[in-house]
UniProtKB/TrEMBL annotation:
Any Pfam family: Glyco_hydro_20
Superkingdom of the organism of origin: Bacteria
Source species taxonomy: Bacteria, Bacillati, Actinomycetota, Actinomycetes, Micrococcales
Catalytic activity, EC: 3.2.1.52
Family: Belongs to the glycosyl hydrolase 20 family.
Protein name: beta-N-acetylhexosaminidase
Matches recorded under CDD domains: GH20_SpHex_like
Length: 498
């Protein structure tokens, strides 16, 4: 039996009886879970189960590991039991994946599943700064992430190309800094009501929003609104080479930037007004964000003196910690000696680290905090899947096909960083080339499923399911469900699609 479940569960066993037929079945138990299951099965099969011949029973029984569930299906009944609401939600999505069409109609194979997540942080990131994406697109991305058992959405809300969330304390940020995207495309921003809606929409699907305000670099848009807070662009040879390769104008003070170069902008580190700005921005954002994390960025500050950079990220993380939130920063910030205790690091280097990226990442663990792993050459969803794709980039060691996205192990990336040092795995999707939900789907799927498995499932090689050969078969069997949900996935040649 090939079990079409992604991410792979902790254990799954064939019960050996005839399958459970969905026709004539009734759904009972938890109302929210029942509604979610009806929606999933209706999209997949064209009808929702209804009747009383057999039952699908959805229940919460507290006491198990957080987010865990069991699923028992035989010829007469299906019972899904979650240790909490999130666990039951994930069990419902596993049940929908198990549904298949047979000569007897739609059925659920007779199996027993025991499942729980490997890591407590399982994230995806959507960059809404390089290209702005409206509320409906973010909602769809949340739905796609939640069905694969991701539980965090990292929103990259600001960058050189645009500021995407309105704040009453600094209204000029959206008034002056939100109008453009890469390539001169239209910009946009979220009102405070939009942002609160997305937070609530995500929470209803057991997803926590992690907002990122990138500092001290990636801040050119800040200068459009508050020019006194930023330095003049630093036009290094690297910046000019990027402009020559990808087009557009070189960045200029006071002029909206719609190119793809990075590392030329910086806040004025020695100016106290910059820290008033940090306090205003994160203070208001914290009041709208019930989740525990605020992301301060800290990456690619190539135009900032290293000592100034260290002083800034130390003070910025302290401001966030004083708000009662846990700061997250990209791994470069690990070079700073005085980060706020507990600051979580996010590693975006390669599966085999280069240029001291692993040293900076290890510093977070020495400071008493875990790491989020986002190795760019494995889980950056914006890398090209094929050489001829018009979408995506190739700077992370070239093409990232589905097999490369799958065949890595989190505990093997950074020497000295083990299971207990890892908070989780996050798959970022940067949007320099991404304009629409169709573009998001084309780049994310099926590789987002590989990232989900790295975050949820047991380590590579520890079960028959945690192999590339098993994964490609299981993902191939997701095609009917993904199509039913309107997902325009990339039909990778490595996958035997069914």
């Amino acid at each position: 039996m090939t079990v079409a479940v992604v991410p792979a569960p902790s254990t799954i066993r064939d019960v050996g009886t005839a399958p459970f037929r969905l026709a004539g079945a009734g759904i009972v138990g938890d109302a929210d879970a029942a509604s979610a299951l009806r929606t999933l099965l209706s999209a997949l099969t064209g009808s929702s189960p209804g009747g009383d011949e057999r039952t699908i029973d959805l229940q919460i029984e507290h006491g198990g590991a957080p987010e865990s569930y069991t699923l028992v299906a035989d010829e007469t009944s299906v019972v899904v039991t979650g240790a909490d609401a999130a666990g039951l939600f994930y069990g419902v999505h596993t049940l929908a994946q198990l549904a298949r069409e047979s000569t007897d109609g739609w059925v659920i194979d007779a199996v027993e599943v025991e499942d729980a997540p490997r890591f407590r942080y399982r994230g995806v990131m959507l960059d809404v700064a390089r290209h702005f994406h409206p509320v409906a697109t973010v909602e769809a991305f949340i739905d796609r992430a939640a069905m694969l058992k991701f539980n965090h959405l990292h929103l990259h809300l600001t960058d050189d190309q645009g500021w995407r969330v309105h704040l009453d304390a600094r209204p000029e940020l959206t008034r002056q800094g939100s109008g453009t995207s890469v390539g001169g495309d239209p910009g946009g921003f979220y009102t405070k009501d939009d942002y609160r809606h997305l937070v609530a929409y995500a929470a209803a699907r057991h997803v926590t929003v992690v907002p990122e305000i990138d500092m001290p670099g990636h801040t050119h848009a800040v200068g459009l609104a508050y020019p006194e807070l930023v330095e003049a662009p630093v036009l290094s040879e690297h910046i000019l080479e990027t402009v020559a390769e990808f087009g557009g104008d070189a960045p200029a003070a006071g002029v909206a930037y719609d190119g793809m170069a990075v590392g030329f902008s910086s806040l004025r580190i020695g100016d106290e007004r910059a820290y008033d700005f940090v306090a205003d921005v994160f203070g208001e954002l914290a009041s709208m964000t019930p989740g525990p994390y605020l992301h301060v960025g800290g990456d690619e500050a190539l135009g900032t003196d290293p000592a100034d950079f260290a002083a800034f990220v130390a003070r910025a993380t302290e401001i966030i910690a004083d708000l009662g939130k846990t700061p997250i920063a990209w791994h470069e910030a690990g070079a700073a000696p005085d980060l706020a205790p507990g600051t979580v690091g996010q590693y975006w280097g390669f599966v085999t680290p280069t240029d001291g990226m692993d040293d900076a990442a290890r510093a977070f663990v020495r400071n008493g905090a875990p790491l989020i792993l986002s190795p760019a050459d494995a889980v950056y969803l914006d890398m090209k899947q094929t050489a001829d794709s018009p979408l995506g980039l190739t700077w992370a060691r070239g093409i990232t096909d589905a097999r490369r996205a799958y065949t890595w192990e989190p505990t093997a990336v950074i020497d000295g960083i083990g299971e207990d040092d890892i908070l989780g795995v996050e798959a970022p999707l940067w949007t320099e080339t991404v304009r629409s939900l169709a573009d998001i789907d084309e780049l994310a799927f099926p590789r987002i499923a590989a990232a989900a498995e790295a975050a949820w499932s047991p380590p590579v090689g520890t079960s028959a399911l945690r192999t590339w050969e098993s994964f490609r078969e299981r993902v191939g069997r997701q095609a009917p469900l993904w199509r039913a949900q309107g997902i325009g996935f990339h039909r990778s040649e490595d996958i035997p699609w069914r």
